[in-house]
Amino acid sequence: MVREISAGGIVVRKREEEWWIAAIEPAGAANDDAKSSKSAAQKSVLALPKGLVDPGEKALDTAVREVYEETGVTAEVITKLGDIKYVYTRSWGDKQRVFKIVSFYLMRYLSGRINQIAEEMRIEVERARWVRLEESPKLLAYKGEKQMAQRALEYVNAHPEL
């Protein structure tokens, strides 16, 4: 079984006394029938920014890079939230089973405009947007990412000095 190591971030930003996080809608993840009677927003998949750790790169550096590439915002790391581990089968190429570990970091927003990303990233990211942190465990599509969002919510509630 192939192993993959990835890293990503939950970028928090406080606006109008509420915490928000940067989330992405992966390209091609929404249903093809978005033109039906339901809106595309109801059918979109919401995920956290993340990506493969490059050779020689540290997971923390990958998380900061991926957040910027996929959302358009610059952030600094506050703490590691944890790791998600799962197995999937590649839908492309060799169709191999992959054991994947994704390390997630809680980050503080520094600068940048959400969804202002390089055009070449549009093959990966349909759209980046701010989502209320309190709602994110319900809105995110993947179980492990929901858990990381819940940890982020608990962290910011326990650390009002942020």
CATH topology: Nucleoside Triphosphate Pyrophosphohydrolase
Give the class from helix and strand content and strand pairing. Answer: alpha+beta
Q: What is the CA-based Rg, rounded? A: 16 Å
What is the H/E order? Answer: EEHEHEEEHH
CATH architecture designation = Alpha-Beta Complex
Q: Please count the beta strands (DSSP E, at least 2 residues each).
A: 6
Total discrete domains: 1
CATH superfamily: Nucleoside Triphosphate Pyrophosphohydrolase
User: Looking at the structure, what is the overall shape?
Assistant: globular
The averaged pLDDT comes out at 91
- CATH top level is Alpha Beta
Descriptive notes:
The chain has helices at residues 40-43, 59-71, 136-139, 143-158; strands at residues 2-15, 18-26, 50-52, 73-89, 97-112, 125-132. It has 162 residues and is α+β, with helices and mostly antiparallel strands. It has one domain (2-158): Nucleoside Triphosphate Pyrophosphohydrolase. Strands 1, 2, 3, 4, 5 and 6 form a 6-stranded mixed β-sheet that branches. Strand 4 (73-89) and strand 5 form a beta hairpin. The protein is globular, with a radius of gyration of 16 Å. The termini are far apart.
Descriptive keywords:
4 helices; Nucleoside Triphosphate Pyrophosphohydrolase; globular; 162 residues; alpha+beta; six-stranded mixed beta sheet
Sequence-ordered SSE layout with sheet pairings:
Layout: E1 2-15, E2 18-26, H1 40-43, E3 50-52, H2 59-71, E4 73-89, E5 97-112, E6 125-132, H3 136-139, H4 143-158
Parallel strand pairs: 1-5
Antiparallel strand pairs: 1-2, 1-3, 2-6, 4-5
